Amino acid sequence: MKLGIVGLPNVGKSTLFNAITSAGAESANYPFCTIEPNVGVVSVPDTRLDYLTNMSSSAKTVPTAIEFFDIAGLVKGASKGEGLGNKFLSHIREVEAVVHVVRCFEDENITHVEGNIDPIRDIEIIELELILSDLEMMTKRLERLGKLIKNDKSLQKELDLVKKVTSILEEERPARALDYDENELKILKTFNLLTAKPILYAANVSEDYLLDSSSNEYVNTIKEYAANDNAEVIVVCGKIEAEISELDSNEKKDFLEELGLDQSGLDKLIRASYSLLGLISYFTTGPKESKAWTIKKDTKAPQAAGKIHSDFERGFIRAEIVSYNDLKEQGSMSAAKEKGLVRLEGKDYIVQDGDVILFRFNV
């Protein structure tokens, strides 16, 4: 899963990015690594995977991972090359969702690029830059298709969609504001439009408002704005996340308890991202390793097997499946089998979140 993080300078975006990408590597065999200066990979914490590792005495624990793309220097005029934004905008066209960090805290020691705190204005500045970047790309595509269609009428559906999207962008509205049929969605995905991607708003608050964000007027205005965009708002505190990132897993748990929190901002962000993108996790476990696999909801067993290896999908025979909750309740795979909780499922089985699976295949 790839998430692109955007926001104005001095909203806490880079602090949050640095904190969450260094905090997430709780498993020694999947450490945080920097692919390039603005990309970080973080493992997804999952207590279910920890339990399976202990149960199977696995030599390795392999969590699923998220790539965070930090779009540095995004300012007003970024789509025209102002700041460093134009350079980095191209880096997030392949992401699956956008996380927009918005400043919701006062601090006289941290200047605001626009002079004062105004979350909606800040959101609209970034949104407009993304729209203008998309519009530039669609305009070029429209010109190209206009020439090609003279000799290739099969491009008509794509041309019609480009015109439809271009019109909404010219109104300074995001591409996700439109409704699309199934065929249009397939074509739209090939465009990699920034404003067609689902969005999450991360309201960055001071420590004082982390437990009771409802009293923060800035957060409330973002929630009202996001409701019109069918978007979720996650409340985080970049300062706290930075402190958490320096702790080991046990210290992190104690620190969160002291603050009265049951999860970190990273955990909230991951859960919201999974929900936003319609993702679930299934597990494989054994002496060699216990591993989490991320798939889309409603994925059938052969396609889920294909996440492991294409041969698993091609030669799929059946899947031995037990739910994580049943397995944990019984304490072992053999005990779960004795109780008849391990099922044999075929090609039409839809994998559920938390399924622990052993695939049988023959190639």
Can you list the strand order of the major beta sheet?
2-3-5-1-6-7-8
Q: Give me the Rg, rounded.
A: 23 Å
Mean pLDDT: 87
Q: Low-confidence spans: pLDDT under 50, at least 5 residues?
A: 23-35
Roughly how many Å apart are the termini? 29 Å
The helix count comes to: 14
Please indicate the percent range of residues in DSSP E strands (runs of 2 or more).
15-25%
What's the main sheet like?
A: 7 strands, mixed
Shape: flat
How many extended strands? 13
| Helicity, as a percent range | 40-55%
Task: Give the SSE order as H and E letters.
Answer: EHEEHEEHEHHHEHEHHHEEHHEHHEE
Task: Please characterize this protein's 3D structure.
The protein has 363 residues and is α/β, with parallel strands linked by helices. The two termini are 29 Å apart. The chain is built from 14 helices and 13 strands. The relative contact order is 0.14. The strands form three sheets. A seven-stranded mixed sheet has the order 2-3-5-1-6-7-8, sandwiched between helices. Helix 1 runs parallel beside helix 8 and helix 4 packs antiparallel against helix 5.
Supply database-style keywords.
363 residues, 3-stranded mixed β-sheet, 14 helices
Could you give a quick summary of the protein structure above?
40% of the residues lie in helices and 20% in strands.
Write the layout of secondary structure elements.
Layout: E1 2-6, H1 13-23, E2 33-36, E3 39-43, H2 47-56, E4 60-62, E5 65-70, H3 85-89, E6 97-103, H4 119-148, H5 156-170, H6 182-191, E7 199-204, H7 217-227, E8 232-236, H8 238-244, H9 249-259, H10 265-277, E9 279-285, E10 289-296, H11 301-306, H12 310-314, E11 316-323, H13 324-330, H14 333-338, E12 343-345, E13 355-361
Parallel strand pairs: 1-5, 1-6, 4-10, 6-7, 7-8
Antiparallel strand pairs: 2-3, 3-5, 9-10, 11-12, 11-13
